[in-house]
Design a protein that fits this description.
The chain folds into two domains: 220 residues, Rossmann fold (3-Layer(aba) Sandwich), CATH 3.40.50; 112 residues, Dehydroquinate synthase-like - alpha domain (Dehydroquinate synthase-like, alpha domain, Up-down Bundle). The strands form three sheets. It has a seven-stranded mixed β-sheet, with helices on both faces. Strands 7-8 form a two-stranded antiparallel sheet. It has a two-stranded antiparallel sheet with strand order 10-11. By secondary structure, it is of the alpha/beta class. The protein is built from 14 helices and eleven strands. The N and C termini lie far apart (54 Å). 49% of the residues are buried. Helix 6 packs parallel to helix 11 and helix 11 crosses helix 14. Helices cover 42% and strands 18% of the residues. Strand 1 and strand 2 form a beta hairpin. The structure holds nicotinamide-adenine-dinucleotide. Nicotinamide-adenine-dinucleotide binds next to helix 4, helix 5, strand 8, helix 6 and helix 11.
Length: 369
């Protein structure tokens, strides 16, 4: 049994197919593969377990398939990774009728999506997410991108180059999470909780009620949560694919998160940085009277229950964090744009005084002594 949700975005429609065993299904919604050349780009950590079912389906459908591995770290999520995919595509003889398939987490999907968007000015891409985060969020919506070195700093700016490049198909098989470390499963729950805050309180209840099953990547529990989280994402993308308005809300917590994620001393995964970022955003909302303290506390307790951090593990310079926030994509002419939670959803605010941002960072610094 699979669930098929359809994205009706301005640039066209595509399906998101979710189901246990979906990777091995010929009927999962692949476009006509007869005579097509395919480059499968897979995260090296999923190469052994999750690539062969996809290759088998493609080859028996008449495609010629080449496979290459990608190193999935934020340090490697750069232009050089895109160039190596172009190189593999040229060697494999990919033409405008060809297809790239991204198998991996959000990082792989972003890099391969960008390579597909730019190779021969754009060829088809299919997203096969293998992390909870990528299933629930990154694989749907067509955002692709890479990190870019910041001028006169030693850190990378998150996703500062990229393209909107919707996939032809998103194929989600919860069984692929069987090999995902529990820490990364928890990271995916950060984006699911974010979707719940934005548009579906019942999603928060499902996560609360099935946390142990979810942390063990139980396929049925994962399928339930992913289906709900993807539905939230699709609703937003259908109305605002290019992020001119409502889609900005999906960045809830992310302006804070992007400032701490690149700091190697903190060793934070994207989902963990989002978790801390959500708490910083809640601090602002409580101070501004947008949400009650009890609501912020309830979200903090849910994040902790799913084993996510709600504060930094060591103190870092707040001046440096505020400086980094000005490079966020959502900043306009250096003015910070924050997405802040409300009781029912979230709002975009450009008018948050620096003093409040500073106190939000203080609120997620580790307790001293
Ligand atoms: N395009 C978007 O809309 C969007 C949205 C959210 C996040 N993102 C991006 O996604 C990235 C984060 O995604 P992520 O959390 O999936 O990270 P990731 O892709 O880095 O994967 C996390 C880790 O899990 C490993 N892995 C992946 N699948 C596995 C599996 N099934 N078994 C074992 N190991 C596996 C990877 O090698 C990696 O070490 C960030 O770069 C972020 O910017 C993009």
């Amino acid at each position: 049994m699979t669930t098929r949700l359809t994205v009706h975005a301005a640039s066209g429609a595509y399906d998101v197919v979710i189901g246990v065993g979906a990777l091995s299904l010929h009927t999962a919604g692949w476009p006509d593969m007869q005579g097509r050349r395919v480059l499968v780009v897979a995260d090296q950590n999923v190469m052994e377990h999750h690539v062969s079912p996809v290759v088998a389906v493609l080859e028996t459908s008449g495609a010629t398939v080449q496979t290459v591995a990608l190193v999935a770290t934020e340090q490697d999520k750069r232009m050089s990774a895109v160039e190596s995919i172009w190189d593999a595509a040229l060697r494999a003889g990919l033409d405008r009728h060809s297809l790239m398939v991204a198998i991996g987490g959000g990082l792989t999907g972003d890099v391969v999506g960008f390579a597909a968007a730019t190779y021969l000015r754009g060829i088809d891409v299919v997203q096969v997410p293998t992390t909870l985060l990528a299933m629930a969020d990154a694989s749907v919506g067509g955002k692709t991108g890479i990190n870019v070195p910041l001028p006169e700093r030693s850190t990378l700016g998150k996703n500062l180059a990229g393209a909107f490049w919707p996939p032809r198909l998103v194929l989600i098989d919860p069984m692929t999470l069987a090999t995902l470390p529990r820490r990364d499963v928890a990271c995916g729950l950060a984006e699911c909780i974010k979707h719940g805050i934005l548009a579906d309180r019942s999603l928060l209840e499902v996560i609360r009620a099935s946390t142990p099953l979810l942390l063990e990547a139980d396929p049925e529990a994962v399928e339930r949560v992913v289906t709900k989280a993807v539905a939230v994402k699709i609703n937003v993308v259908d109305r605002d694919e290019r992020e001119t308005g409502e889609r900005m809300l999906l960045n809830l917590g992310h302006t804070f998160a992007h400032a701490i994620e690149p700091l190697s001393e903190l060793d934070l995964r994207h989902g963990e940085a989002v978790s801390v970022g959500l708490m910083a955003a809640y601090h602002c909302s409580v101070e501004l009277g947008l949400v009650a303290q009890s609501e912020a506390a309830s979200i903090a307790s849910l994040l902790e229950t799913v084993t996510l951090p709600i504060a930094l593990s060591k103190p870092v310079s707040i001046d440096a964090l505020i400086d980094a926030m000005r490079f966020d994509k959502k900043a306009t002419a250096g003015v910070l744009r924050l997405i802040l939670p409300t009781e029912a959803s979230a709002v975009v605010r450009d008018d948050i005084p620096e003093g409040l941002v500073r106190s939000a960072w203080e609120s997620v610094m580790p307790a001293m002594g």
